[in-house]
Amino acid sequence: TFAGPIAFLKSAPALQHLPGADVPEVAFAGRSNVGKSSLLNALTNRNSLARTSNTPGRTQELNFFDVGEPLAFRLVDMPGYGFAKAPKDVVKKWRFLVNDFLRGRDVLKRTLVLIDARHGLKDVDREIMEMLDKAAVSYRLVLTKADKIKPTELDKVVAATAEEARKRPAAHPDIIATSSETGLGIAELRAAVIEAIG
Ligand code: GTP
Ligand code: MG
Prior knowledge:
The protein is of the alpha/beta class. The protein has one domain (about 5-195): P-loop containing nucleotide triphosphate hydrolases (Rossmann fold), CATH 3.40.50.300. It is built from five helices and seven strands, in the order E-E-H-E-E-H-E-H-E-H-E-H. The protein has helices spanning about 35-45, 90-105, 125-135, 150-165, 185-195; strands spanning about 5-10, 25-30, 60-65, 75, 110-115, 140-145, 175. Strands 1-3-4-2-5-6-7 form a seven-stranded mixed β-sheet, with helices on both faces. It starts with 5 loop residues before the first strand and ends with a helix. Necessary for normal cell division and for the maintenance of normal septation.
């Protein structure tokens, strides 16, 4: 499916702007700057489909991308959470937007919760996991920027992250380590998206 056409559909700054819930969706969540938009680009093999930036807070709306012709599924790039430098009310707005979307979207098949491989799970990540567990929304933890640490370090963070994931009712037990730079884990992630879509 990823070999077919992929196109930006629309940006939703608020829930009333969501596209119709007519096809399965997979969403990208995670802290600001963790690499959500970059991973979406790597996954779809498009350099600048989703806008990326070194400055946290780049993605400010829910962005929907149509995959396949005929339309097979949608990928959803989302604003980051836990970005302390943005004005408080803005952070709050993103948080409500993301949380309400994740909790209330019945076509959402899986949420990919991205974690920076250098840092591992943080309390803000655990908060979103808690929210997803409570709402029984299926999610999978994906480590990003794996190129920035040594393989031995990566093995450790994969093991530690998997240990936490296995205690979480709505989490997939297996972790995927990725790098949008080197392509590590991208094929595996594509397979995981296809599997989630069902
Ligand atoms: P927000 O939209 O602000 O929440 O950020 P985001 O999670 O979408 O992150 P984005 O994809 O914009 O990437 C943030 C920065 O990290 C950019 O400078 C990317 O080039 C860099 N980056 C993303 N993924 C990787 C990766 O796998 N390896 C390396 N080395 N850098 C990466
Ligand atoms: Mg982004």
